[in-house]
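Students often ask why inverse folding is considered easier than folding. One informal answer: many sequences map to the same fold, so there is more than one right answer. In these notes we will look at a single instance of the problem. The structure comes first.
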């Protein structure tokens, strides 16, 4: 099979590798589509923190892929051939590690429910429970977005965003745009998005009440003018010290701030002063799968915000897809993984 491998920092190559070996509770999948995450995949490409602290080169890239089951192990009973599964990747194979392994032609899904029923340890690993069956009415290209939609919805639900809330999101990448849509889906009254000027259209399409060009000299004034009393919630989807500091200034006394991005991991501190809550509780994708499905079917999540199906890359064009994401030309470039 072919797979996109990070050999060393900044170097991605499509290599021929042995197909992964399938275990009793596992199923072999033909990976269909993946989407590039401008945040995580760029950090993995360049071997940045926090991933460099626990991943080992070389590794197969990709964590937003979906696959169709073609063969099941002897103890699999909740999955069947033909099922489309989210968040499927390739484990280590041929001496190459897995950086979630989604950008490959073959992946492995796990019947974690059968493992749970049989008392097999490890069934509750979050990298397994995110593997959920997509109903037949969900196109695989759309299925790649479930990863982003689920994690952002879980994060802000746990954060406490609900009806009537005022929310500031800094960062207009795929996650920032998803936070906007999901905040509106939870009933937020006003969502301001501070992002790059070329993302205003996507920002408004995602449901932003106010869009502010973060590079504008009037950005802080515009953000504060939109909600004069300060925001109930601030989410930094980038993870830079400067944007976190600006977000904290716009937080109302007693409000909540969360740092989701990892661009300057380990280099950010919150300023003392007015009373606020820092949310550091993370998320669990699996818990919001059904809610995301319902939001999508109700038309409350628009795939056109994130992906352009007219600009689909092949696996051999992985370098071009990564460049399109890193340059912010596309929000989430789509990759066809079929050989």
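Output (designed amino acids):
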């Amino acid at each position: 099979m072919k797979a996109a491998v990070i050999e060393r920092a900044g170097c991605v190559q499509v290599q021929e590798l042995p197909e992964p070996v399938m275990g009793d509770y596992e199923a072999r999948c033909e990976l269909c589509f993946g989407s590039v995450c401008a945040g995580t995949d760029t950090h993995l490409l360049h071997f940045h923190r926090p991933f460099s602290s626990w991943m080992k080169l070389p590794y197969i890239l990709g964590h937003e892929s979906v696959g169709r089951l073609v063969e099941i192990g002897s103890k699999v009973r909740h999955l069947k051939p033909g099922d489309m599964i989210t968040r499927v990747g390739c484990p280590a194979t041929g001496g190459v590690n897995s950086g979630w392994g989604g950008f490959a032609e073959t992946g492995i899904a796990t019947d974690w429910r059968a493992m749970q029923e049989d008392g097999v340890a490890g069934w509750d690993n979050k990298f397994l429970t995110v593997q959920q069956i997509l109903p037949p009415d969900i196109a695989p290209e759309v299925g790649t977005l479930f990863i982003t939609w689920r994690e952002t919805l879980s994060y802000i639900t746990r954060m406490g965003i609900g009806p009537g809330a005022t929310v500031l999101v800094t960062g207009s990448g795929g996650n920032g745009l998803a936070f906007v849509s999901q905040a509106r889906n939870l009933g937020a009254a006003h969502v301001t998005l501070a992002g790059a000027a070329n993302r205003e259209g996507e920002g408004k399409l995602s449901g932003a009440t106010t869009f502010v060009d973060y590079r504008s000299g009037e950005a802080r004034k515009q953000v504060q003018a939109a909600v004069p009393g300060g925001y109930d919630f601030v989410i930094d989807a980038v993870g830079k010290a400067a944007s976190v500091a600006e977000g904290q200034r716009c937080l109302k006394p007693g409000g909540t701030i969360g740092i989701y991005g990892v661009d300057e991991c380990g280099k950010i501190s919150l300023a003392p002063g007015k009373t606020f809550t820092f949310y550091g509780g993370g998320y669990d994708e699996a818990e919001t799968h059904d809610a995301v499905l319902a939001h999508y079917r109700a038309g409350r999540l628009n795939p056109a915000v994130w992906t352009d199906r007219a600009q689909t890359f092949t696996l051999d064009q992985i370098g071009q897809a990564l460049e399109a994401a890193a340059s912010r030309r596309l929000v989430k470039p789509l990759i066809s993984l079929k050989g």
